[in-house]
Amino acid sequence: MRGAESAEHKMMRRMSKTMVRKMLFAALPIVAGAILALAAPPLRAQTPVTFKTADGVTIYGAYFAARNSSRPIILLFHQAGANRYEYAPIAPRLVALGFSCLAIDQRWGGKMFGRTNETVRKLGHEETASDKVEDLEADLGGALAWARNKYPRRKIILWGSSYSASLVFVIAAEHPGEIAGVLAFSPGEYFQRHPTLVEDAAKQVTVPVFITSENDADALANATKIFDAVASREKIDYVAKFAVHGSSTLRQDRNPQGAATNWRTVAAFLQQFER
């Protein structure tokens, strides 16, 4: 039973043997690095970014540059009703761990986190899941194209929250060989016109994958279904003791009881990309 498991058992329960070995051998430096990242002061240096999607929409975002220009870039995608400021306290932590980040305002978003979604504001309206899912995919695909064109030699990691946690699997499946890893926070089959879109895409994803969600029965079932479909042998389904929806599970203001522990687990997963 889930309730009888320890936090450690929950974390390890669905790890592949390969990932378990990697994390055990790297345990001490990972924990030290995570502690340093959590203690690091927020980094405010960021560069405004704009790019056009394949269907002509202008997307607004911000690029956070790490000191090491050879390390991977993480593309950060927010949840519905939100904007790139979902990652305001998250991107600096990732930079402290050595990863550059691009956080964008997608066309399905709003004023969550006390900020305005600039892309939605300039469009004058918000797209939703009931619209063409291809339009929503175009935002993520445009971010990938921006990173690939600007930094062609660097690895790229996809990171999604809620509906975008679902779409990162679609983008990874459509761009084999271009994506180094995937992190999905609260993924699910959110697109009614395409009820198996995410599961079908996950079957084609062979890179390392990290999945987690809030401690809700339906959310956990959604995450597990997608996890089971993932083709990669290096995958983690992390069941956190304290969790909230989407990437906000790493925000201290949204998840005060669990953010620190969840951060350590994410840092452990990301450590494999530091080489």
Quick structural gist:
This protein is an alpha/beta fold. Helices cover 37% and strands 16% of the residues. It has a single domain, classed as Rossmann fold (3-Layer(aba) Sandwich), CATH 3.40.50.
What does this structure look like?
- This protein is of the alpha/beta class and 275 residues long.
- It has one domain: Rossmann fold, CATH 3.40.50.1820.
- Helices cover 37% and strands 16% of the residues.
- The chain contains 10 helices and 8 strands.
- Strands 1-2-4-3-5-6-7-8 form an 8-stranded mixed sheet, with helices on both faces.
- β6 (181-185), α8 and β7 (209-212) form a beta-alpha-beta unit.
- α3 (27-39) packs across α10 and α6 (133-150) packs across α7.
- The protein is globular and about 40 Å long.
Task: Walk me through the topology.
Elements: H1 7-12, H2 17-25, H3 27-39, E1 47-52, E2 58-64, E3 73-77, H4 91-96, E4 100-105, H5 118-123, H6 133-150, E5 156-161, H7 163-174, E6 181-185, H8 197-202, E7 209-212, H9 217-229, E8 235-238, H10 259-270
Parallel strand pairs: 3-4, 3-5, 5-6, 6-7, 7-8
Antiparallel strand pairs: 1-2, 2-4
Helix pairs in contact: 3-10, 6-7
Tell me which CATH architecture applies here.
Answer: 3-Layer(aba) Sandwich
Q: End-to-end distance, in Å?
A: 37 Å
| Strand arrangement, major sheet | 1-2-4-3-5-6-7-8
**CATH homologous superfamily - what is it?**
Alpha/Beta hydrolase fold, catalytic domain
Instruction: Assign the CATH class.
Output: Alpha Beta
**DSSP E strands, number:** 8
The number of helical segments is: 10
Large-scale geometry: globular
Helix content: 25-40%
For the sheet with most strands, the description reads: 8 strands, mixed
Tell me the series of helices and strands, N- to C-terminal.
HHHEEEHEHHEHEHEHEH
Low-confidence stretches: 1-44
Q: Per DSSP, what share of the residues sits in E-state strands of 2 or more residues?
A: 15-25%
